[in-house]
Amino acid sequence: MTPVEETPQQTPALFLSRVERRYPQGEGFLDILRGADVAIWPGEIVALVAPSGTGKSTLLHVAGLLEKPDGGEVYIGGYPTAGMSDAERTRLRREEIGFVYQFHHLLPEFSALENVVMPQLIRGLSRAEAKDRAEQVLGFLGLGARLDHRPPELSGGEQQRVAIARAVANTPRVLLADEPTGNLDPHTAGHVFTTLMAIVRASGLAAMIATHNMDLAARMDRRVTIQDGLVVQLG
């Protein structure tokens, strides 16, 4: 594979180039993305704000290699992914992309520490390495005293911080989040978002966060939206 032509200092962590995505509808197709372009740089946090039904989730799924585009290219760290096999896409997604959702999806029978250790074991790290990394990340997010607590014993904000720790445990290049504070009260949402920003800045990963919360969006580096299937920069 040949990386996109950028210098190492100028390579986007995530670059969607003229991405198209359509779904069958009746006898034809419904075009959701119609040549969308967006680049996210290392250490950058970009807000994706758009009304429901405009393609936010589709854009995140394509960017996260959960769906293949019908046209265009998705570059991760400068490398194209369209020609990859399903196994290659799965490996790249596991190693280079972290996901945070509106619902934390933690495993209730496991502790906070175990929830963060598990994806690292799947990647191939030893249990000792995974445990050490999990303790570091959870401690950074202010959960050092809650390592042995299971999700039902944690508050909503704590559960979402565990979900963030799980998403970044494998040191991904890209973090994608879909309404990560949507189920939290405003105070807790602000605290969770502050910890999310801190870990993005500290690790240098690139983040795209879909949100309806305009106060949180205003705290990010840039805001983009989707109009007529294109990604458009907001002022």
Task: Write up what this structure looks like.
The structure is a single chain. By secondary structure, the chain is an alpha/beta fold. It is built from 7 helices and 10 strands. The protein has helices at residues 56-63, 86-96, 112-123, 127-140, 156-168, 186-203, 214-218, and strands at 14-25, 28-40, 45-48, 71-76, 79-80, 97-100, 174-178, 206-210, 222-227, 230-233. A 6-stranded mixed β-sheet has the order 6-7-8-3-9-10. Strands 2-1-4-5 form a 4-stranded antiparallel β-sheet, covered by helices on one side. Helix 3 packs across helix 4 and helix 5 packs parallel to helix 6. The chain is globular and about 55 Å long.
Short description:
With 235 residues, the chain is α/β, with parallel strands linked by helices. It contains seven helices and ten strands. The chain is globular, with a radius of gyration of 18 Å.
